[in-house]
Amino acid sequence: MLSLDASAVRLGASAENKTDAIRQVGQILIDSGYIEPGYVDSLLAREKVANTFLGNGIAIPHGVPKDRGLIKRTGVAVLQVPDGVDWNPGDRVYLVVGIAAKSDEHLQILTNLTDVLGDPTEAERLAHTHNPVDIERRLSSGAEPTSPTTTKPLPDDLPNHFDIAIDSPHGLHARPATALVDIAKEFDATIRVRHGDRAGDAKSLIALLNLGIGSGATIRVMAEGPDADAALTALREAIEAGLEEEEDAPVAGGEMAPIDWEGRSIAGVAASPGLAAGPAWQYQRGKIVVAATARDPSAELTRLDRAIEGAKRELAELYEEVKSRYGAGKAAIFRAHAEFLEDQGIIEAAKTRIRDASRSAGYAWEQSYGQQAKDLAAQKDALLAARAVDLRDVGRRVLRLLAERIEDAPKLPDTPVILVADDLSPSDTAKLDPALALGICTASGGPTSHTAIIARSLGIPALVGAGDSVLEIADGTDIVLDGNSGTLVLTPTDADRATAERVQADMANQREEERRACYQPAIMTDGARVEVVANIAAPEEAARAVEAGGEGVGLLRTEFLFLGRDQAPTEEEQTDAYTTMVEALNGLPIIIRTLDIGGDKSVPYMSMPVEENPFLGERGIRLCLNRPELFRTQLRAIFRASKKGPVRIMFPMISTLEELKRAKALTEEVRQEIGADPVEIGIMIEVPSAVMMAEELAAEADFFSVGSNDLTQYCLAIDRMHPMLSRQADGLHPAVLRMIDQTVKAAEKAGKWVGVCGGIAGDPRGVVILTGLGVKELSVSIPSIAAVKAQIRGLSMEKANDLAKRALACSNAAAVRRLR
């Protein structure tokens, strides 16, 4: 049994910041003969990927698994900082417990430590004791005999349970225990874990750590409640899989292992894979315009309250999103941000301006938080001054909800840069030159936004939803953008730059290997085949799709012919464009989607009425059926082009069987007028009603293509362009996956095939899951074709089926993305 040596306890220390504190406790470990000096860097690296703050002023810095070779022997050191040191925003630490774990001998100390976490008085005593023996005895032997016992009477075992051994070489320590807690919280059930004669709440990290579960220990996992069975199944699978024990565990095919960046970073949402390093360029610093005065103070006070509550919801959602993807450490900043919105001083100052000076809510709020941020920035204390950036970020979140308009013309770079913006419109993004736009980082938006979609089509690394603080980055600042993990490194170190160069070189080599093999079919290791085709939106992209290895075109968005002009394209114009693409494909099939106008795409010359809910109004096939001459003209052009090569027609936004039958009847009339041969006719599966009617629709259609972006939007009732909610519009949500599964089964029953042409078709995790669900065609952006084909060639159907099955059983998108 390991005991803490009093010589490894340093009292009365002071630390400038967290890094300084970690270096000090690391030096104690060195002086005590526990570690090599290089392990201190490993302690610091851990802080980039995990939150080591436990609570009650205690933190437990420990290194990353790959550096265990630098540990001479297992040991623990304690640095007492009586005045405290800021650890995370809002978290102050007084006891820094440095751990060098070569085995599981330190677990008893952690168990004793969690007893302290449950006793604020004891934590306060140890934080200010003048005797190192107090800390040595408390952490080595547990509570003093005179202390009241913290062990409560054991609850009766719950009716459903399983017993399992913990195979982790270091037992159920903080990180795997956190993973278990996160899973347990997903279920509506009471869940307990028993170890020996003690039991704890599986949804409490402290309770689990307090059980002192070492390697090889057998535990009983018990559950009771509506989700008890599902919870036990998920927990058993997670424990058997190792509870994410190794940070460098293999990732799903096509995904890169996460990088431990050293410099200060911001966590956003990964939108387009790849890595970029270079100077920042503020593409569009959106100026938020608000009125100075208002006539109705009461209404303005209500507007302010609603905006603050809206910002709180946004921050709560952002915290959960970032935590689920990248860990609590990176997400902690958003909890601290939310605390600013509880500051009654800032709020009351704004309300006073509204009541006493007839100011608008927007103006009053801008003045209030702006003055407070200015005061903070003027502080000599660097930590306090840094909080000004956080306050401005939070302030702008509220201000955007009060804005009358956002103005300032965008600027285009003339040298290679990483673009930083509040958000980019589809037309803005489409104009970018990939040779000059090294990467894209936006403050708002989600992974299915137009920015993300177009960035993927251009092969530009991108992250979105990074928060307004990125708008403070000065032009020319060297940054690193990791589009694989959704991380923006604001202050890259020399090591970070070297890592970026190495990763970029590795990615370039990988892309070159994929390019050389791009014409090979996507045949899995056990012989199953998936066709990989391209999404295109312009005539010249057809040839590019073939050159990239595409086996055809799975989605031609014909809207490009109708947008940005004063009148509808003629039949001749459309025929020429479609024929050019058919001929460029040289015998490969092309799926031409009929006009999908409406929703977020409007055409002035069509005099479309203003709709309160355009995504639920006249769009897609509804518009075409309501304007038959427009529809007929397009169909005539398609059938004329079909004489030059294999063409398939696809109708968008089919929601009822009647719509499909009407569209097919009109199409057949046009075909006979033209005298063309029959073509395959398919439909987009984009709304829940189409999923529920899939069996009936499969009897009428030749194939289905799932538009996962719109299906996600309608399934989850989230506008994928919504500034607050778009981050939640994840196509890998189990609700969406179950709809795709139901669609595939209905199609297979009718002998029809299903493709997917939305964003998840090119997502490395999505590729595996969709293949496992039985999807036969993946239609992706041109730059993604070679990589997707290479990923499929290295995948077995057995593995894909297994991952798909487990994904369907998950309770949210974050759980799906954690699967291995």
From TrEMBL:
Its cofactor is Mg(2+). Residues 2-142 form the PTS EIIA type-2 domain. It holds the Pfam family PEP-utilisers_N. Keywords: Cytoplasm, Kinase, Magnesium, Metal-binding, Phosphoprotein, Phosphotransferase system, Pyruvate, Sugar transport, Transferase, Transport. The keyword Cell cycle does not apply. Residues 159-246 form the HPr domain. One of its GO terms (molecular function) is kinase activity. Its EC number is 2.7.3.9. InterPro entries: HPr-like, HPr-like_sf, PEP-util_enz_mobile_dom, PEP-utilizing_PTS_enzyme, PEP_util_AS, PEP_util_C, Phosphohistidine_dom_sf, PTrfase/Anion_transptr. Its main location: cytoplasm. It catalyses: L-histidyl-[protein] + phosphoenolpyruvate = N(pros)-phospho-L-histidyl-[protein] + pyruvate. Residues 136-158 are annotated as: Disordered. It comes from the Bacteria. GO terms for biological process: phosphoenolpyruvate-dependent sugar phosphotransferase system. PANTHER family: PHOSPHOENOLPYRUVATE-PROTEIN PHOSPHOTRANSFERASE. Belongs to the PEP-utilizing enzyme family. The phosphoenolpyruvate-dependent sugar phosphotransferase system (sugar PTS), a major carbohydrate active transport system, catalyzes the phosphorylation of incoming sugar substrates concomitantly with their translocation across the cell membrane. The enzyme II FruAB PTS system is involved in fructose transport. This is Multiphosphoryl transfer protein. The lineage of its organism: Bacteria, Pseudomonadati, Pseudomonadota, Gammaproteobacteria, Chromatiales.
